[in-house]
């Protein structure tokens, strides 16, 4: 009897373990089945490692990639401009839709498996706007991005250098041989790199000064062209004279913001940088952006330089774009997305597409005050004429990077519910932020406004 009872318990334990294992397997199948089905070794979906089903289009229906034929957009300039949004033949560009959205292209269903015909993946980008941005970069290294901060849709995402994806094999060979023309060509600078921010970081310093020092009312600074701090000299391009906070931001006065940084202290600046979302990655369709960097030093010289966006400060362009969206949205916006819709061969929705919320740890009132300051920058310094009727709020940055020419930045947003666009432009070693990056932003925004 004891032997029978022992065998019964053994059988029950075996059944229990078998049932648990089956539940785990079913759960993994539901959660990871699409990844298994879209694995590059699946010969039903891939030919020589290249996805052979489904299509990718831009938001206007322009074909960017046909999986069955392997063809990209008809126009070579469009192919280059959308390279980092679409991808190459070998999956070396991990931010491309061919990698990110291959499960959607494969028409995978957990019940029926992989369909005989792929889905159409529609991206949020406008290929024409990408082309304009790419041409405006004129072969220089950098990135341009624009997104709708109310919906999260990325309308423009360009990274340079790029190449024609139809030349993927030749480029791969050149990269393997160390051809300098293709150095970092697979890198999406918008998502996967961080850069010295220069004066665009003064927005963070301004936010902290508004909250902690009542700087809109109490701050004044007389700029002589240089500020001596801790045995070092923080220089300005010119002597700006007596300024309040609004004038100091419009003039991008290094001395004023170094002084504010010293008054605030390194720990406070780090807190505001963290609250701005500039130190953490942003998740875009499952791909995490690069992190930023800030060192909370109390050495007055280094602290002064960190307040103007130098020292060890690093910012990822995607994180900066979300910050701009959140300031425009008075603390809240949407996270960026590249996926607009997924439809089957029968033109029916094949997947649910959603966007996630974004927020920063700055108050709505602080954001409203920053909006007014950034709007003043455009009116009093950058020039409203270049933006037509768009009420643009912006900040430029000319970030010193050793002995090379400085990086040129221009970031901001359109403060208009009918045109809720935030933007970021970075030209590596481009020189003046307002002149070089600002002109690119104006070109792209004016095309967007006229579309």
Quick description:
Helix content is 40%, strand content 20%.
Walkthrough of the structure:
- The protein has a domain of 234 residues: DD-peptidase/beta-lactamase superfamily (Beta-lactamase, 3-Layer(aba) Sandwich).
- 50% of the residues are buried.
- The strands form eight sheets. It has a five-stranded mixed beta sheet, with no helix packed on it.
- It is built from 17 helices and 22 strands.
- About 2% of the residues have low confidence.
- With 451 residues, the chain is α+β, with helices and mostly antiparallel strands.
- The protein is globular, with a radius of gyration of 25 Å.
Helical fraction equals 25-40%
Round the Cα radius of gyration to an integer and report it: 25 Å
CATH topology of the domain at 198-337 and 357-450: Beta-lactamase
- What is the overall number of helices? 17
| Poorly predicted runs of 5 or more residues | 28-33, 41-45
State the distance separating the first and last CA atoms.
84 Å
Spell out the CATH superfamily of the domain at 198-337 and 357-450.
DD-peptidase/beta-lactamase superfamily
What structural class should be given to the helix and strand makeup? Answer: alpha+beta
Please name the CATH architecture of the domain at 198-337 and 357-450: 3-Layer(aba) Sandwich
Q: Count the strands? A: 22
Binned strand content: 15-25%
Oligomeric grouping of the chains: single chain
Most strands sheet: 5 strands, mixed
- Spatial order of the strands forming the largest sheet: 5-4-3-8-18
């Amino acid at each position: 009897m004891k032997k029978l009872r022992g065998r019964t318990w053994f059988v029950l334990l075996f059944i229990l373990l078998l049932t648990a294992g089956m539940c785990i397997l079913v759960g993994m199948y539901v959660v990871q089945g699409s990844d298994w089905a879209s694995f590059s070794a699946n010969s039903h979906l891939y030919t020589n490692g290249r996805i052979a089903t489904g299509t990718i289009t831009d938001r206007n229906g322009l074909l960017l990639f046909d999986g069955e034929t392997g063809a990209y957009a008809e126009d070579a300039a469009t192919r280059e401009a959308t390279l980092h949004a679409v991808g190459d033949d070998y999956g070396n560009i991990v931010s491309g839709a061919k990698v990110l959205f291959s499960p959607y292209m494969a028409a995978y269903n957990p019940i029926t498996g992989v369909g005989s015909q792929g889905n159409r993946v529609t991206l949020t980008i406008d290929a024409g706007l990408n082309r304009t941005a790419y041409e405006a970069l004129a072969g220089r290294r950098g990135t341009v991005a624009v997104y709708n901060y109310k919906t999260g849709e990325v309308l423009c995402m360009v990274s340079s250098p790029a190449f024609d994806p139809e030349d993927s094999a030749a480029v791969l060979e050149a990269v393997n041989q160390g051809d300098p023309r293709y150095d970092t060509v697979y890198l999406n600078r918008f998502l996967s790199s961080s850069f010295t921010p220069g004066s665009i970081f003064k927005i963070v310093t301004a936010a902290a000064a508004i909250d902690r020092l009542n700087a809109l009312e109490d701050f004044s600074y007389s700029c002589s062209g240089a500020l001596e701090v801790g045995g070092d000299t923080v220089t300005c391009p010119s002597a700006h004279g007596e300024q309040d906070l609004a004038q100091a931001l419009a003039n991008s006065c290094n001395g004023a913001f170094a002084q504010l940084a010293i008054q605030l202290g390194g720990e406070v600046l780090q807190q505001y940088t963290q609250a701005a979302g500039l130190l953490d990655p942003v998740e875009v369709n499952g791909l995490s952006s690069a992190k930023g960097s800030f060192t909370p030093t109390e050495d007055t010289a280094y602290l002064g330089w960190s307040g103007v966006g130098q020292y060890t400060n690093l910012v990822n362009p995607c994180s900066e774009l979300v910050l701009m969206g959140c300031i425009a949205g008075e603390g809240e916006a949407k996270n960026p997305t590249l996926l607009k819709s997924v439809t089957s061969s029968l033109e029916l929705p094949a997947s649910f597409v959603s966007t996630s919320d974004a927020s920063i740890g700055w108050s709505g009132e602080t954001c409203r005050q920053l909006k007014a300051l950034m709007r003043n920058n455009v009116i009093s310094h950058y020039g409203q004429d270049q933006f037509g009727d768009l009420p643009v709020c912006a900040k430029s940055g000319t970030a010193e990077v050793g002995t090379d020419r400085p990086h040129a930045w221009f970031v901001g947003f359109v403060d208009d519910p009918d045109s809720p666009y935030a933007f970021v432009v970075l030209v590596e070693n481009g020189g003046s932020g307002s002149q070089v990056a600002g002109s690119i932003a104006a070109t792209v925004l004016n095309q967007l406004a006229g579309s």
